[in-house]
Structures are given as structure tokens and as C-alpha cells.
Amino acid sequence: MHHILDKVEACKKKSQLQVSDFFDPFTINTASSILQGIQEIKFLTWGGYQGAERKKLYIFPEYLEIDKREFQISLICFQGSFKFFENSHRHVLGALLASGIKRDKLGDIFVNENLVQVLADSKVTGYLISNMRSIGPVPVVGEEKRIESLMLPRESLKEIRATVTSMRLDAVLSAGFFLSRSKSAELVKKDRVKVNWQPMTRVDYQINEGDILSVQGKGRIIVMEVLGTTKKDRIALKIGAYV
What we know:
This protein is of the alpha+beta class. The chain has six helices and 15 strands. It has helices at 2-14, 25-35, 89-98, 125-131, 169-177, 181-189; strands spanning 18-23, 41-46, 55-61, 73-79, 106-111, 115-121, 134-135, 138-139, 141-145, 157-164, 193-195, 198-199, 212-215, 219-229, 235-242.
């Protein structure tokens, strides 16, 4: 949180708006709880559209009004023919990072059949359009669009029914991602797992209904409902896999 507190000091000293990079929901919530207790400043969060997952923090003097033009978020659309190549969020993010852009300069990413929409820091828009030439083997062409033209896809969940011996993180991961218990534990210990966007390295961490679990390179799931206990004393779960 030192980065955020530095923004607060700069805001007070210069009496100017201070804009952060993009943060995940866990960091945004943590920072917001801290900022709420600081006098002389106001703040808001925005990721380019209502309901954005990754957002920026805007910290400004309490007397200042913020104009939308100061949000510093751009929409970049990449078009390509992905008929013979799986165009997934993982592939797109990998290509963006390979171009030299850091993750904190990127907001939400939306992948459609032949169109990729990326919300990004306005300062890197020109660089991405010039340097992002392909996603996997598919050539792409980037163009900046008005952010109001963002097309939000309907996020769908593939329902999984599973039973687990306990609500430990490694057990639920194993059920939701169809992994062995040992492989799930390995991913946790290697710091590749987040629970509600918070990095988690405890394999015995207790998962609750509504928790979102993500694994680097594999996607994410949500524990939709705890259905009860089976005759063999296993816990029945309804899990949603984001597709």
C-alpha cells in the first residue's frame, strides 16, 4: 500500500488528481478501506465500465471535481481471424505481456471469436497498437475505439457437481479444476493460486460458499453452493467454471 500512500501525499502536496495503475478487486478493496479514513482527500475507482473487475484509483482534493477525460483509460480493439486457433484470455494476456507491457497497465480483457477488446492505460495505447502484431500464430491489427463502444460479452458458467472430503483449498481446487490433490497442493505452494483475488499459499485454507478461486494459466471457478453432506460424509458442491 506504500504506492497508494505516496499518491495521497502527492495529492495533498500538489493539490492535484493522482491516478494509480490498474488493481485487482482485492487490492482495490484493501486500498479503499485505508483511503476512507484519510481526511482532506476523496477517491473513486473506475475500470472503464460499470462492473469492471480491474480498476484504477483516483485520489483528489475533496474540493475538486473529476472530469471523465481524466480517467486515462483507453479501449483498444484487435481484430484477427481465429478460425483455426483457440483465442482465449490466457493467450491474449500472454501476447500483451510479451509485447513488453506490464499487467498493471492493463484493465479487463474481453475475447470474442474474431475480436479482442483491451482496456488499457492511455499512456500505453500507442505502444500496444504499434507493437502488438499477433496473438499466437494469428496476425492482428489494433485500433483505438471510443470507450463507449465496448461490447460486453455475457459471461457464462459451466456447472460442475462434485464432492470433497473437506472445504480445504487443495480439495476444492482438485474438484473444480479436475486435478489430483497433490497437484492442487503443488500449485498453491508455488503461489499460483488466489482466493477472492488474494494470493493464498495455505493448502488448508477453508473455502466458503461464494468464494472465487483462480489458478494462474488455468482460469477460475466459483463455489456456487454447498449442497450438504452425502451418505459417505463427503461435502457436495455446486461449482461454476468461468468459460
